[in-house]
Design goal:
Blueprint (H helix, E strand, L loop, with lengths): L1 H11 L3 H14 L4 H14 L3 H7 L9 H11 L3 H17 L3 H18 L1 H15 L5 H14 L6 H15 L4 H16 L2 H14 L7 H9 L16 H21 L2
Helix pairs in contact: 1-2, 2-3, 3-4, 3-5, 5-6, 5-7, 6-7, 7-8, 7-9, 8-9, 9-10, 9-11, 10-11, 11-12, 11-13, 11-14, 12-13, 13-14
């Protein structure tokens, strides 16, 4: 147990080599924390942009390893909204079956996240349910992530930049700095939708600083894809699909939002 939680602490501090070594030892020796350690290894791979390794781990995880959550996080990062929705809905149903109210709320927030890029109307409905589920729980991280989801849902509207600045302040006060990256990704989507090249460039620069450790570095790739910009240098991200397909999918979400704002439907 001590080894697992020490490895988890290393992960929270972005000391990923130490976290990976500890998780590998826990997973190898077995015991009741082995599945959590496998999930930790899958998440470390995803954070590093090694999506094939993360995906390969999913069949070994099961409910205790939160397999649907891991799979959904992989899919939304690839702009594969339909598969992400399927995974998060399955994870929510599984959490309900096990009476895991915290996991149910977490899956609901992630479901709204996956939808927020592609279907802002339905995302609003799912986000409302997420807030209902979170109201009775002490999940500060997911409550703040739900506010990020609201930004993405409203991308392209005038209120987003000011709300993002306020959310940065709340995130700093909560001591959850990893969420700054999600806010900047939301802003990248917003600026790409509005064609605000200078603001997008500044956002990408901030994202690059926030992901300098390697965690979530693929967010900077996604920001470029959203705006149909070339990557300034070869990426270390390993996607599960062809890079051009990922680029096209993210750009397609931007174009769909532009059309939604233009037609109002």
């Amino acid at each position: 147990m001590a080894l697992y939680y020490r490895a988890k602490a290393h992960k929270d501090l972005s000391q990923n080599d130490a976290a990976r070594a500890g998780m590998q030892q826990v997973a190898y020796t077995g015991g009741r924390l082995a599945l959590k350690a496998r999930r930790g290894l899958a998440n470390l791979a995803r954070l590093a942009g090694d999506f094939p390794t993360a995906l390969a781990a999913v069949p070994t995880l099961g409910w205790k390893g939160r397999h649907h959550r891991v799979l959904g996080d992989i899919h939304w990062s690839h702009a594969d909204t339909a598969q992400a929705i399927n995974a998060f809905e399955a994870g929510r149903a599984e959490a309900e079956q096990h009476g895991a109210v915290g996991e149910r709320a977490m899956m609901q927030v992630r479901l709204a996240l996956a939808l927020s890029f592609a279907d802002p109307v339905r995302a609003g409905d799912e986000l409302a349910l997420a807030h209902q589920l979170l109201d009775s729980l002490d999940q500060r991280s997911n409550t703040l992530l739900a506010q990020v989801v609201a930004l993405i849902k409203d991308a392209g509207t005038d209120s987003v930049p000011d709300r993002a600045q306020g959310l940065h302040t709340d995130i700093e006060a909560a001591g959850l700095p990893f969420l700054h990256r999600f806010v900047e990704l939301a802003l990248a989507f917003h600026h790409a939708v509005r064609g605000e090249d200078q603001d997008l460039a500044a956002t990408i620069s901030r994202l690059r600083e926030l992901t300098a450790t390697g965690d979530f570095a693929y967010f900077t790739d996604i920001a470029h894809f959203m705006a149909a910009l070339p990557l300034p240098e070869p990426s270390t991200t390993r996607w599960t699909k062809n890079d051009d397909d990922i680029r096209s999918a993210w750009r397609g979400l931007v174009q769909a939002r532009q059309e939604h704002l233009h037609t109002g439907s």
